[in-house]
Write a structure and sequence with these properties.
about 300 residues; mainly alpha; 14 helices
Length: about 300
């Protein structure tokens, strides 16, 4: 096309943008009869097609994410929640993102804690030592080669209850299904994620992932109205919200780690059950002063805060 014609079209285009009456007359001359409203509808349809394509991609990602997940009865629900979670992230809706993410963790956690296998294992092992000896070289630690002074109940249920008794003593008597949500999550991290083979050098990793999962637990209700936050809950949100762009990815990474733990632990449950059945039921001891090295229980509680 000649340059002078291109220049004329550009002038007409600019005039049509500035003058609605001129634009309407031009449309009539060109035989364009569709109204402005129909153009808007077309734009909406275009957006709907775009969103549909994005959701289709996200759903494929969700299906891949939960591929080979051992609890098949809840996979379809987990996929739906994953799609919702990613949709909220795209809209920068952090509160609903956290809720949809937590609902996946909650669904998995509750389903696992319905298991009679895990209930039998925990009942047998609460009073037994939480740590195993670190083997030399690259060898895997032996499940029976246990060490230290801290039993499993005191590792998971740290702190004291309102009655003044250690949580380890009181909570280890409760049925698995009746434990608090955050306690169930820590139970799964220990038994599935670490396969009861927690080394002293694993403690920081154990505390980090349980801490992140607890942050997700706190953030899930941040957009609910009428909630009265405790000082600790308010401090948690004040720490996370200003850095939510980072926490989108930290929380997604935490979910991925949780799923990885479940897949790994599920294949080991039969061996852990056999080991648990070989043990005598042991009474949960009152917590001693040592948690890790020279770390006092009170210091640990201050660092992680009391979670229920």
């Amino acid at each position: 096309m000649e340059e002078n014609k291109k220049a004329a079209i550009e002038k007409i285009y600019l005039l049509a943008k500035q003058d609605a009456e001129f634009k309407e007359e031009l449309r009539k001359k060109l035989g364009i009869t569709s109204s402005a409203s129909s153009v808007i509808i077309d734009d909406k349809r275009l957006n709907q097609i775009y969103e549909y394509c994005i959701e289709k991609i996200i759903r494929k990602q969700a299906e891949d994410f939960y591929k080979d997940f051992p609890i098949t009865s809840i996979v379809s629900t987990l996929i739906d929640d994953y799609v919702r979670m990613e949709s909220f992230r795209r809209r920068d809706n952090f509160g609903d993102f956290c809720l949809a993410l937590y609902q996946q963790i909650e669904n998995i956690t509750n389903k696992i804690c319905e298991s009679s296998v895990l209930a039998e294992i925990t009942d047998k092992m609460w009073g037994h030592l939480a740590y195993v000896k670190t083997p030399e070289g690259q060898q895997e630690p032996e499940i029976k080669d246990r060490t230290g002074k801290t039993d499993i109940a005191n590792l998971i249920f740290y702190g004291t209850s309102k009655s003044g008794l250690p949580n380890a003593v009181e909570k280890s008597k409760k049925a698995l299904q009746n434990q608090f949500a955050s306690d169930k999550i820590r139970i799964i991290i220990y038994f599935y994620g670490f396969g009861t083979r927690l080394k002293n050098s694993d403690f920081d990793s154990f505390r980090e992932i349980t801490g992140l999962l607890n942050d997700i637990y706190q953030c899930r209700n941040m957009n609910h109205r009428g909630n009265t936050l405790t000082q600790w809950e308010e401090e948690t949100l004040n720490r996370i919200i200003p850095m939510k762009s980072l926490y989108y990815f930290k929380f997604l990474g935490c979910l991925a780690q949780y799923i990885s733990f479940i897949k790994k632990g599920d294949s080991e449950m039969s061996n852990i059950l056999a080991y648990a059945r070989s043990l005598e039921t042991k009474k949960v001891e009152m917590p001693g002063p040592i948690i890790k090295g020279k770390m006092d229980l009170a210091v640990l509680e201050k660092m992680t805060k009391k979670r229920k």
